[in-house]
Write a structure and sequence with these properties.
Residues 1-34 are annotated as: Disordered. The protein has 698 residues and is mainly beta. It folds into five domains: 68-304, Jelly Rolls; 324-420, Sandwich (Immunoglobulin-like), CATH 2.60.40; 437-520; 527-609, no CATH class; 618-694. The chain has two helices and 54 strands.
């Protein structure tokens, strides 16, 4: 999922004033009758003023109508300590400037985790930079969580916003209004986070009315991993008199333009000496060992004295009848997000209810959207590269078409697959339409088993066209057919169009008598396998029973090797390697080290995917234990075959396993073994090793 790198066109609206119970999730807060204030990062106007203050911390400052605006220009400095007070570094790895990734600048700040919980505090302290302690501060920054993957309930704190040091600011001490206070913001694997792509934002505050440790409050607004996010915050101290604090302190935080958290009834301080001391990056994990992972920061900007008011670029709510404000969210049952990829795309969306456009969350106004209502509400739009379109709707989505396909689709927080929807709604009485078209899956003359799956936009049923057999194990469900052939044909009659087709194996496919290429129909590698570095080198091998390939533009394309159509190998220390594949994952092997592996969106245990524990019914053992020299062999099976350590055999990755054919060399004194299903159709042996075939070993 890609977050736009330029957030400067987010729109500003009035923020609702919430009562004492305003700490609920984003869905609860959106129910306010007032519009949500949605702001972008501060864009300094005009030339940057000369650096001021008593240290090198201020890159540029500008005063506008009583507001001091500060931009921390990372490109002008050689070390983060020139900008921030760097302290409490528990990781032993000093924060550093890096040239990649950045958010359009020459360098960004990287803070790396070790086995310790914490990286370091990087505090921009106002008094150290020539300012008085302010009463209110707005700050924005860009965050790139690099290679971070969390287990359930893990938390990561990312920023002090703000921090006033003292016994009441952390560590469980009581906050009495004179001895410091703080708020650490971050993300956690809770509240149905869309893991591993993102984790939801939280606020962790030390204030006068909390009990026990910090006041931890989750939201359902995600921060995305391995990409740039925009984080904004506004904090205003409560008023006080005679040593008594009033309940009017404010904290507001936005994530990628969406108001994620708000409190307007806080008590933080009772004295001028206990206002806002500073803001800045922080890395602190509770849970998983994140060694080698990092938090990367860019574009840190500050406004003292309020929220900048020069960012109002509101979309035409009164002029465009298809567009509503985010505050209208509670008037609709569902919400829909269309994330476009790197190319301009045209798409159409059908809903059996009402639908409106909205610039909620990361979505921006798309003036090309047209919405028509007849039997269905139909959205037609053109999406620019890297953009996000948002909608609220009632009813169900019945069809989606897009060219090219979107990068991601979401419905009410759940990611959906466009392949699960037809390109157009089913026509009325579609079941009565004649099934005049024929798809034929032809396995005659091929070796091994070919698995297939296809989807049509109309109805489909099994057929004997072309001399095909009627196979009871083939399944048909809602226009999707799943089956396999091995030396025979399967045929199906259908109406509508063939929309998706995946074939794992050598079988040929024809439609209405014309042979077709499965690659022309949908995504033939529907699954994603993700290897996440943890700072320690790990060498891996991944094997599927279909086809696996690296991802263009991902680190896997340069740092991993595709050994066969079924197997990839690589070595990872930091970052992420992603692979797309079809079929099933059958083996995950670490030659050195070990790290986290995700199958689609779920973390898996590599031990559950081992060819050494997968047993097919038969076994071949090429036994060189009494041979005088190495023996070469090759064979072909008309079913499945995998390597095995059966009878203490070695699993030699230099041996070749290509589809249903194997070839290798067994050294003197060793054995090679394979599990298989089906019959041996060819076998060649050069050497004096013996060959044993064991049937029904389970």
């Amino acid at each position: 999922m890609i977050v736009k790198s330029d957030y400067s066109e987010y729109m500003a609206r009035k923020t609702p004033e919430l009562g004492d119970d305003s700490s609920g999730g984003a869905d609860e807060r959106a129910a306010s009758d007032s519009a949500i204030d949605r702001r972008s990062y501060l864009k300094l106007a005009g030339a940057t003023a000369a650096a001021i203050g008593t240290s090198a911390g201020v890159a540029g400052a500008q005063s506008t109508e009583g507001m001091e605006r500060i931009e921390l220009d990372y490109d002008r400095y050689g070390d983060p300590s020139q900008l921030y007070n760097v302290n409490d570094n528990r990781s032993g790895i000093p924060p550093e400037f890096v040239s990649s990734p950045t958010n359009g600048s020459d360098q960004a700040i990287r803070t790396e985790f070790s086995s310790a919980q914490k990286t370091a505090n990087l505090e921009y302290r106002f008094e150290e930079n020539g300012y008085e302690m302010p009463r209110e501060v707005y700050t924005s920054f860009k965050l790139y969580p690099d290679g971070i993957r969390l287990s359930a309930n893990d938390t990561v704190r990312i920023f002090w916003l703000p921090l006033t040091n003292g016994t009441g600011s952390s560590g469980g001490g009581a906050t009495d209004g004179t001895n410091g206070w703080s708020n650490a913001i971050g993300f956690a694997n809770r509240n149905d986070s869309p893991a591993p792509n993102g984790y939801n934002f939280f606020s962790y505050s030390y204030h006068m009315d909390r009990g026990g440790s910090g006041d931890f409050q989750m939201t359902d607004v995600p921060i995305w991993m391995d990409q740039w996010n925009e984080i904004e915050g506004y904090v205003r101290c409560n008023t006080f008199s005679g040593g008594s604090a009033n309940r009017d302190g404010v904290m507001r935080y936005w994530v990628n333009g969406e108001l994620a958290f708000e409190r307007t009834n806080l008590r933080m301080t009772t004295t001028e000496s206990n206002l806002i001391e500073g803001v800045g990056p922080l890395g602190y994990v509770v849970g998983s060992n994140l060694s080698g992972s990092a938090l990367i920061y860019d574009d840190h900007e500050i406004a003292i004295g309020g929220v900048p008011d020069d960012r109002d670029d509101s979309p035409p709510y009164d002029e465009d009848p298809t567009l509503v404000e985010p505050s209208a969210r509670e008037q609709y049952e569902e919400r829909f997000t269309y994330r476009n990829g790197d190319e301009e795309a045209e798409y159409k969306l059908y809903v059996d209810g009402d639908i409106v456009q909205s610039d909620w969350s990361q979505a921006t106004y798309n003036e090309s959207v047209e919405i028509a209502s007849d039997e269905y509400a139909v959205v037609e739009a053109t999406a620019e590269p890297g953009t996000v379109d948002g909608y609220f709707f009632d009813g169900d989505i019945v069809a989606i078409s897009a060219d090219p396909e979107p990068e991601q689709l979401w419905v009410s927080g759940e990611q959906i697959d466009p392949a699960d929807y037809p390109d157009a709604p089913p026509a009325e009485n579609r079941s009565d339409e004649p099934l005049e078209r024929v798809v034929l899956v032809d396995g005659l003359g091929t070796t091994g088993t070919s698995r297939y799956e296809f989807t049509v936009s109309g109805s489909v049923e099994k057929s004997s066209d072309g001399g095909a057999s009627i196979d009871g194990t083939d399944t048909i469900e809602s226009g999707t057919v799943t089956g396999s052939v091995a030396g025979w044909r399967d045929a199906f009659r259908f109406s509508g169009d063939l929309e998706e087709l995946t074939v794992d194996g050598a079988a040929r496919v024809s439609v209405d008598g014309e042979e077709i290429d499965p690659a022309d129909y949908g995504n033939d590698l529907p699954h994603v396998l993700t290897v996440v570095g943890n700072g320690s080198e790990a060498s891996y091998e991944l094997t599927v029973d279909g086809t696996i390939d690296t991802v263009l533009g991902d680190a896997s394309a340069t740092d991993a090797e595709r050994r066969t159509t079924e197997t990839v190998t690589g070595t990872i220390e930091r970052g992420v390697h992603r692979f797309r594949f079809s079929g099933e994952l059958v083996d995950v092997t670490f030659a050195t080290g070990e790290t986290h592996v995700y199958l689609d969106a779920e973390r898996i245990d590599p031990a559950d995917y081992s060819s050494e524990t997968r047993v097919l019914p038969h076994a071949i053992v090429v036994d060189g234990s009494e041979a005088d020299d190495a023996t070469d062999y090759s064979f072909t099976i008309d079913g499945d075959v995998i390597q095995s350590n059966y009878r203490d055999a070695t699993v030699d990755r230099a041996d070749s396993l290509e589809g249903t054919s194997a070839a290798g060399t067994v050294r003197a004194g060793e054995r090679d073994a394979y599990f298989f299903d089906g019959d041996i159709t060819d076998f060649t042996l050069v050497g004096d090793a013996t060959v044993d075939v064991h049937h029904d070993i389970q």
